[in-house]
Amino acid sequence: MKSTLHPIKLTKLFDLVLVIQKKRNISTKQAQKILGLKSRARATRYIDTAKWLLSKLGTFKGSFDDFIEKIKDVLEQEFKISKILAEMSSRHINANPLALKNVARDLGINIDIKTARALFTLSRELGLLSIAQISVFTPTIEDVVLNFIRNRGTVLFLTIEKTFPNAREIVLKLWLRGFIDIEGIEEIGLKPSQITDPDRIPADIVPSDSRFLSFWVDDISGERYASIVIPQRSRVIAKW
User: In this structure, are 119 and 218 located in the same domain?
Assistant: First the structure.
């Protein structure tokens, strides 16, 4: 499910909704002036969100508090937001937009990651979602790195590499065990279950031009093998 919902400030959105109700058509420059924004892109996002909300609300009359309640109603009607957040809470899942998207998917509610980010931000601003620190037992470095990734939902490999020694080895272990995904790695044509050693893959079963592979020759046997490499800009994505 796609929407023109964006993570924006509710007080500014309220002001804009009232103006758009009267004028209907509003330029980006007018929105920038009303909202005190320098960015045209941000002003456009506010306009898109305001128009989307009005398409669901119809004519709005009331105070800011009334506006907040109306937004809650819309999010419930369109996304079943209380069901998603309750499920996240019951599973004790790390709170981030990707986790929200995945839980929604499990409940049969398909949303894209942009909408998930907006719902996550709005839920916090509306008081529907509170973030609490929880204790996570991390007896191994693999557990530490997995928790690091899950707290963020998705993170560049570069960030992990800067934070943890042996990042490649650890991330590949987590991938082989099914705890994470690595964006783009499917191009090597092998599933984790088909790999026993990521540093000794027979070269003849993988593509020769993948950015996720480097090749080498065994000095003794003369056999050619591939090792999995992780490009620094690849995204590492948590799975639950």
Answer: no
Number of structural domains, the chain?
2
DSSP string of 47-60? HHHHHHHHHHH-S-
CA–CA separation, 13 and 24 (whole Å) = 15
Question: Which tens digit of pLDDT belongs to each residue from 8-46?
Answer: 789 988 988 888 888 777 889 988 988 888 889 988 988
- 62 Cβ contact list (under 8 Å, min separation 6): 70
Tokens of 190: 């092998």
Residue 214 parent element (H or E): strand 213-217
E strand spans, the chain = 154-156, 180-182, 201-202, 213-217, 224-228, 235-238
Please tell me whether residues 115 and 170 are part of one structural domain. Answer: no
Q: Give me 55's structure tokens.
A: 């398409």
Are residues 100 and 161 located together in one domain of the fold?
no
Contacts of 22 (CB under 8 A, 6+ apart): none
pTM, rounded to two decimals:
0.77
189 belongs to a structural domain = yes
